[in-house]
Specification:
The complex is a heterodimer of chains A (about 725) and B (about 325). Chain A is of the alpha+beta class. Chain A has 17 helices and 27 strands. Classes of the chains: A alpha+beta (about 725), B alpha+beta (about 325). The complex binds flavin-adenine dinucleotide (FAD) and iron/sulfur cluster. Chain A: This is Carbon-monoxide dehydrogenase large subunit.
């Protein structure tokens, strides 16, 4: 038996480099003569810059340049097609579109001097009162033209008829607040020019997009722009699009004639790379007596900026997940004087939260167990496209999850379960997210004369384990051991890959690696069967298998030869680059079960126990997959119980732009999380049966927590986060 | 952060001499001061490092526990005498910050940490406490974390220290040294009400060094406890907190001292709540009366009205523990 390289809980191959500090992130790049930029941000949310006094800053020690809209070169605005979603470049005119918009850039020889000088820039404004409260401007809601995340007004069937025919209807309003990514590593750009050639070290989820955006901004040819991003300290969507600070850094580097490094501060990150926009959601869900859904009407209203109307809180689960003939999903926008929203770790969590919470409400109206309600509405097809999922073991997830959790012991009556000092609640919800249906990626596999392989692809590793699983995929297909394969990423000189986003890395990049490795392997097999001195000489190529670093006859494994011998005799390396093939749509699903404890006096909610069972096709690596599931659950605890970005209604400014005001969960908030996988290959997968899984784990958990809070207390808290003041208000 | 000079002081007298210059500032653990300086909230030309001063010990003498001002939060929290005789102090320290911060932070620095009011912490926003006369955006803005008692129309910030709440309930005394010599300041008079001068926060004079804190050891203190309510399980400031010292005989409350955090610009001692308990049986009715007395003068704002019931519930929860432990 040859040892399989996929599936095993292989430790991250970049783990040692990360914990020893050997891993060089963008800000660690050693660039000779690098100087430092600091952004000066608008302190008003709306109005115009009337004057910028740069005299003090320009005269400060070490300062190489102070740039405002009056002296920064004019730059071309890159297009949304290269993921430059923001529709203006700051520091090009005097208009203020939101607070925390760059209005000046100071470059100095050291960071400290740049910081000190930035404090000397005096900006005068003509400020106008901003409008930043979604609830105040709901009357201004409009349906924008469709951008990248599905139809904004989607209809199938006849919702009115479906609601009229329903035995029970749940009508709800859920709201979710503004939230921020808070990746540990802030966004970083280090830009260096050599004549007309630009090299950028960037903390990005998409080096190809960054490269394209810079080409557009400066009118450069592809071969003149190189983007490097070998490691990321998380991104969570913040580094998915390309943002102005990247372009601005390159622009000032060109003007001062020195390499420039920009590291966004934590506070600047709150207005520089998007956020999860606040939502207001109204749902009407009807069901027949047996629980079958007759209609879903879901209207999501969310904040957009003055300059963009991209809606990133997509109602994807409403359109795709459950068998329901009559669905209307409307996505509306309200313009406010705030930065644009963007992708935040599983953008569909907001809508999934409202849908899964409403289904729980419906289960009580129907008197039906919430698991059973979902089983009855399970569908083997993508309800929006009508296409069958490659595979879907969601019902098995419900069943196994219920069993591991002990769901059958649940007394469904709210407030019926207690322990010594509080109320206990059990809740559940479905996890579901698309994984694929995105552009493909290419990869190059090079097999050296020593029989080892090097694989390259211009992808990124967010910290999710791309380095590790791509190496596993390559090794599996080639039949090499892990140590005989190396995988490199994060360089735009490598074959182009899709962004590390949309749960698409495995189906897009993974498929590219599999295709290239397959072709390379076949070339080696062809050499082996053609060589008269080879033990495999004369065999039909399709009778040859690979494994453990060898090629061998499938029927007679003792007839074998090593990669190393074959390649040494060949004497030259073999190199194959795969074409990018559009990644098929996948749907990764699961079931989440949660136990909460609610202190009835102080209103504190604590998550006590969590079970998640997932179907993401074949699991490439049980360790990294489990980490992703745990990470999603932890973020979901924050989403449900503590995270919210607060904007002052009068000043229009974020008052919580740091990790002391914006509360992410700490270890003590996180219980033991029981994660397991169905682990059956999806036959439609181009990546050895695996589907993408990045965003699935976070969906479902928020609603499961909220549903458990209801079960504990008998009260629905429909406005997130569920803080103790809301529990107390409900209980008193 | 601007460039500054740095001097390490080895004796309190020398530190005080250096600090006579108003541009100078002491730095102990630096866990608050450096944040404020990096964010541009405070600027100091000269930092006098006092962390090596011989003021880091904990001693018992003459019916008091004497805490050096430079003792670290982590050391004091686990000190045997503190744990046994002043449990509320140990609990309040352990409820504050994180192990990493507590390993750096000194008691003196803790008392002088500045408010977490987000408008205060951002130098580009108006704030009367940071910049007198610039206004208080919290009054009509986001005030979920702000004071419900003891505020003024100029400032409704809350004092963030858990330690100060415990020390207020324990009736501790702050020992100091200045050019005029040593003196003692009772906790009750250490913090100033905001009034129309919220930028004046304590009774300390320019350059006055906190040398230590004296805490009386009493039977009452031995039966003391701390309750902190916050928005996540740990590593977060109080939404409300209670330090309670209660001595019972049978059901009757013989002595009580109650101080509260998270509700006022200074640690909030409520003698009205204490009086509602003393001489009465500890039962639901007296506990409710104490809570009512506590919030009688409360002046909640748009987003912090929940603190009124929450602090009463916290009080009832902690008093209930005394009832049960009896
Ligand atoms: C992330 C975080 C979370 C926190 N959470 C909590 C919490 O939950 N509860 C809580 O109570 N605290 C909390 N804190 C605050 C922390 O306890 C204080 O920052 C710390 O106690 C300050 O002590 P220090 O020695 O570092 O003071 P420094 O930062 O060195 O000094 C603070 C101030 O005190 C002055 N000073 C220091 N020592 C003396 C002295 N002996 N005489 C005169 N002046 C002096 C300094 O000049 C300075 O103005 C938190 C802090 C952080 C960073
Ligand atoms: S509450 Fe006090 S500290 Fe906060 S903004 Fe108002 S004046 Fe400043």
């Amino acid at each position: 038996m040859t040892e399989s390289q996929v599936g095993r809980p292989v430790s991250r191959v970049d783990g040692v480099a990360k914990v020893t500090g050997a891993a060089r992130y963008a800000a660690d790049a050693e660039v000779r003569g690098v100087t430092h930029a600091v952004l000066v941000m608008s302190t008003v949310a709306r109005g115009r810059v009337t004057a910028v006094d740069t005299a003090g800053a320009s005269a400060a020690p070490g300062v190489l340049g102070v740039f405002t809209h009056q002296n920064l070169a004019r730059l071309a605005l890159p297009s949304p097609a290269v993921a430059f979603l923001k529709r203006f470049l700051p520091v090009q005119d005097d208009l203020i579109r939101h607070a925390g918009q760059p209005v000046a850039i100071v470059v100095a020889d050291t960071l400290e001097r740049a910081q000190q000088a930035s404090g000397l820039v005096g900006v005068s404004y003509r400020a106008e009162p901003p409008r930043v409260v979604l609830a105040d401007d709901m009357g201004e809601a409009y349906i924008p033209p469709q951008t990248n995340d599905g139809a904004n007004d989607y209809v199938r069937g006849d919702v009115a008829a479906g609601l009229a025919a329903a035995h029970a209807v749940a009508e709800t309003t859920y709201t979710t607040p503004m939230q921020h990514h808070n990746a540990l590593e802030p966004s970083v750009t280090v830009a260096a020019w050599d004549g007309d050639r630009l090299t950028v070290h960037e903390s990005t989820q998409g080096i190809s997009n960054t490269q394209n955006a810079l080409m557009q901004a400066f009118g450069l040819a592809r071969e003149n722009v190189r983007v490097l991003s070998p490691y990321l300290g998380g991104g969570f969507g913040a580094k998915g699009p390309v943002w102005p600070h990247t372009v601005l850094t390159a622009a000032v580097a060109r003007q001062v004639g020195r390499p420039v490094k920009l590291v966004l501060t934590r506070a600047q990150a709150y207005t520089s790379n998007g956020h999860r926009a606040e939502t207001h959601q109204v749902l009407r869900v009807g069901a027949a007596r047996d629980g079958r859904l007759t209609a879903i009407q879901h209207t999501v209203t969310q904040q957009v900026s003055r300059t963009e109307d991209a809606l990133l809180n997509s109602s994807e689960p409403t359109r795709i997940l459950y068998a329901c003939p009559n669905v209307r999903s409307t996505q509306q926008a309200v313009r406010l004087d705030l930065p644009m929203g963007s992708f935040v770790r599983s953008p569909e969590t907001a809508t999934s939260h409202a849908l899964e919470s409403t289904l729980d409400e419906l289960s009580y109206t129907l008197g039906l167990d919430p698991v059973e309600l979902r089983v009855r509405n399970w569908s083997a097809t993508n309800q929006e496209s009508g296409e069958r999922h490659g595979s879907s073991y969601l019902r098995e997830c419900y069943e196994r999850g219920a069993e591991r959790f002990g769901w059958s012991r649940r007394d469904p009556r709210p407030g019926s379960m207690r322990d010594r000092d509080g109320l206990i609640g059990w809740g559940m919800a479905t996890a579901a997210h698309t994984a694929g249906g995105r552009p493909g990626s290419s990869a190059t596999v090079t097999i050296g004369v020593d029989g080892t392989a090097r694989i390259r692809s211009g992808t990124q590793d967010l910290g999710t384990g791309t380095y590790t699983v791509m190496r596993q995929l390559g090794a599996e297909v080639l039949g090499l051991r892990l140590r005989g394969v190396r995988f490199d990423l994060g360089d735009s000189a490598f074959p182009a890959a899709f962004a590390s986003a949309a749960s698409a890395t495995v189906p897009s990049v993974g498929a590219g690696v599999v295709r290239a490795a397959t072709a390379a392997r076949d070339r080696v097999i062809a050499l082996a069967v053609a060589d008269p001195d080879s033990p495999l000489h004369g065999a039909a190529p399709d009778q040859v298998s690979v494994g453990d670093g060898d090629l061998f006859l499938t029927e007679r494994p003792s007839r074998r030869v090593g990669y190393r011998q074959v390649m040494r005799r060949h004497g030259r390396l073999i190199e194959v680059t795969s074409e990018a093939v559009f990644a098929p749509m996948g749907y990764s699903v699961g079931a989440t079960f949660v136990e909460v404890h609610v202190d009835p006096v102080l209103g504190r909610v604590q998550v006590r126990r969590m079970v998640g069972v997932f179907d993401c096709g074949r699991v490439l690596n049980h360790r990294t997959a489990r980490s992703q599931a745990i990470g999603g659950a932890i973020w979901a605890i924050g989403f449900t119980l503590s995270e919210h970005t607060l904007v002052d209604p009068n000043l229009g400014r974020i008052v919580t732009p740091n990790l002391s005001g914006y509360l992410v969960p700490v270890n003590a908030d996180v219980p033991d999380i029981d994660v397991s996988f169905i682990d059956k290959p999806d036959p439609s997968s181009p990546a050895l049966g695996a589907r993408g899984f990045g965003e699935t784990p976070m969906t479902g958990v928020t609603a499961a927590i909220g549903n458990a809070v209801y079960h504990a207390t008998g009260h629905r808290i429909r406005d997130l986060p569920i803080t103790q003041d809301k529990i107390i208000a409900a209980l008193s | 952060m601007d460039a500054f000079a740095y001097t390490r002081a080895d004796q309190p007298e020398r530190a005080v001499r250096l600090a006579a210059d108003p541009r100078a500032r002491y730095i102990a653990g630096g866990t608050d001061l450096l944040n404020l300086m990096k964010d541009g909230v405070q600027r100091h030309d000269h930092l006098i490092d006092i962390s090596a001063l011989p003021l880091a010990d904990v001693r018992e003498s003459g019916g008091r526990i004497r805490l050096g001002a430079l003792s670290r939060m982590s050391d004091v929290a686990v000190h045997q005498a503190v744990r046994r005789r002043l449990p509320v102090l140990s609990q309040a320290l352990l409820a504050g910050a994180s192990p990493q911060v507590r390993n750096m932070a000194s008691l003196g620095g803790n008392l002088l940490q500045r408010t977490r009011c987000w408008y205060f912490r951002d130098p580009t926003m108006p704030c009367n406490r940071r910049e007198p006369g610039s206004g208080c955006p919290a009054l009509d803005g986001l005030n979920r974390w702000h004071a419900i008692v003891g505020g003024s129309d100029h400032c409704i910030a809350v004092h963030p220290s858990d330690l100060a709440v415990a020390l207020t309930a324990l009736d501790a005394t702050v020992r100091t040294l200045s050019a005029e010599g040593p003196r003692e300041i009772p906790m009750a008079g250490f913090y100033l009400p905001p009034g129309d001068t919220p930028h004046l926060e304590t009774a300390l004079r320019q350059g006055e060094l906190i040398t230590g804190i004296d805490v009386p050891v009493t039977e009452l203190a031995a039966g003391s406890t701390y309750l902190k309510v916050r928005d996540r399980a740990t590593f977060e400031f109080a939404v409300v907190s209670v330090a309670a010292l209660v001595r019972l005989r049978g059901e009757e409350v013989r002595e009580a001292r109650l101080a509260f955090g998270g509700i006022a610009p200074r640690p909030w001692r409520s003698e009205a709540a204490e009086q509602a308990l003393i001489g009465r049986p500890l039962n639901a009715a007296t506990i409710e009366a104490a809570g009512a007395a506590l919030v009688r003068d409360a002046r909640p704002r748009a987003h912090n009205a929940f603190k009124v019931p929450l602090v009463q519930r916290a009080l009832s929860d902690i008093l209930g523990q005394f009832g049960r432990n009896r």
